[in-house]
Request: fold
Amino acid sequence: MQMQYSELSPAIRKILEALPDPGAHEASAPMLPRECYTSPEFFEFERLRVFPRSWVCVGREEQIPNTGDYLAPAIGAEPLLVVRRTDGSIGAMSAVCRHRGQVIATEAGSAGRAFRCPLHVWTYDLDGNFVGAPYLESRDDIECLRKNAKLPEVRLERWHGFLFVNLDSDATPLAPSLAKVEPFWANYENADLVAVPPTPGDTPLPWNWKIHAENFTDAYHPEFVHRGTHDFAPSVHPEGGVEFTAMTAADNAIVRTVPLLKADGGMTDAGWGPEAAFPAIATLSPEQRKRLTFVLIPPSMTLIFAPGAVAYQLITPVGAEATLASNDRVTAGGWLLPRSTHARNDFAERAATVREGAKKIWLQDIPVNLGVQAGKKSRFMPEGHYVPLETTLIQFNAWLVRAYRAAVPSP
Ligand code: FES
Ligand SMILES: [Fe+2]
Reply:
């Protein structure tokens, strides 16, 4: 249910009133108020009002291959079940039991043919229909529950095998909002990709999820922060460096693409380099084999299209200064790669090499993320000023402002 502006606390109203104009695509575009990154109350606003209206990636279809397999994510305050149904389709529904509200599952698993609530074992089929309850003897009661006690359905979209859910039944469809990413998928899926899902992060990183996303999408910092690990994929290069895509109000993706100094490069044990641990994908175009493309899909995921793999990350905000992240930099895995790569005898060694190089990059990012988070708490935090290399940050700011405004209509 959409909140009214008058229901907001004075502190949140003050933050929302200080938001910059989302159309300000200038270097001088102001940054978000610093409280957006530090205030627990503002995080609750995002958690309860913004994320439930957003398309949130909860995993991939390969993670639930068999009938009854399910994921158990939570979006905002809503525990959900994302399940492979009897007909092979995948659906999402509330995980809150229709009896007394026990959460049916909080971890992924296999339900077989039916979900059983742990508290009093009411059962539901894989579509969420009530099936039965112990000691419920009245046929009328059973019939009534069969008609009425269905786990509420939640919207789900599959996008290139990724599963996205949205608690807003009026949300605009996801796929058109990601149309600008489609050209980058070209030729990858001809390569018989398999997924290696990331190990889920379980230790919150001590910074706001937006700082995490900004760090990912920032083309300005690699030359300085990632000296030695990122020079092979430069944002600034005499023959053309980073390229951005235009951003409209309907877009849910923020894209930057950078050249590689040599075709078929990728992640090595020392960061991006020419001798990639994952071999280049034969179906890609020569142009694709010479670039890295970084895609931020706020608020929950990132993609890197590289010659040898698509690396993905899932981001789960858990507090104003607490963010879970799952990918090859922070935990392990998070790849789509050709079956032929995955089947190699030395795949485990190659994966470890990628993990080693990615971790080196990550260890360089940790101190700057801590530094940015600390700066947001300072009374001297500047309003900020972007340079052209930070186009993606301006675009992310615009996405955020639109999401905040859409969550609570102005009076
Ligand atoms: S709360 Fe689920 S069966 Fe009682
Ligand atoms: Fe970085």
Notes: The first strand starts at residue 56 and ends at 60. The longest helix spans residues 347-376. The radius of gyration is 22 Å.
